[in-house]
Amino acid sequence: MAFSLLPKGTGRRRAADKVEELRRDIFHLLTQKAAADDAFMLLHQELADARGKQAEAEELVVKQLADIDDLTAERDALAEEVTALKRRFGPQLAAEANANAVTVPSWVRDTSDPADQATGPIDVSPLWAARDAGLLGPVTDPGRIGPDDDTQPIPAI
Description:
Layout: H1 11-99, H2 127-132
């Protein structure tokens, strides 16, 4: 068995194979170029859409800034009007407030409503003072201060 270092076929056949290979490469490259053109056109369309949305957003910002300016001017005008009305009607408002003033001292409270009955003083003595006064129950329930039933108030010290 003899090995040949030369490729099979004649020179003419090898050239035809190379031409076929180059045609396949050209077809492959043209396919890639068409795909790249499609992708490029899609990117151009997306860019056009993005620029359109940006223009709309900028227009909206301009409108909102104009609205803010208008509302700021209106607010300032209303603030001036309120100040003028306070100056004009301030003495009248003060006179009405003085005429309708509450004359009951703050320490007197109407307790005619049963839901608003006055309560007794709340014992806020420290625990050791309650213990020394005998107000603590047995230590079986350390969180409880006072008599065993809740119906009786805790006597003040």
